[in-house]
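Example record

One chain of 152 residues, shown exactly as stored in the release files.
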Amino acid sequence: MLRFAVMWVIFMALFFIGTMGLEMTEGLKIGTTEYYGLRNIGVVFLFATFIVYGLPASALYVAIVIPASVLLRQKNRAALLAKIAIFTALGCAGGKAMFDAMFMDHLVDWYELNENTAVAIFGACGLAYALIDVFSARGRRPDFIRKERNEW
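Predicted structure tokens for this chain:
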């Protein structure tokens, strides 16, 4: 259980990295006071992001990510690749959801914001989480990674 608490901290850190990356790449294009982003409200944006988006993301972590990690904790290559693919896909879906939640449709049209940026950023965060999850499992070295032998 402690492992999942540590992985939750990593999940939230990657979530905030993704959110800040999305804000830096797409949100700073918006030059109107109708959108309150990092440029307009600064540090308050970080707290608002945690309350509005971070808490629901934590609930999704408990409901989706932990069960997926438990179900796919086998050591074989297929299970590990499935875990990496699932978490990367979940990251991409989360990126689309964050883009839709953060930016109103008319702002997307006026400032030509690109939804694929959010999908790529959060997909990379999902991939990073999956790799950390796979390779941080204590005592569970994947079968396809050979242990070095000191043979003389």
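Notes: Residues 140 and 146 are 12 Å apart (CA to CA).
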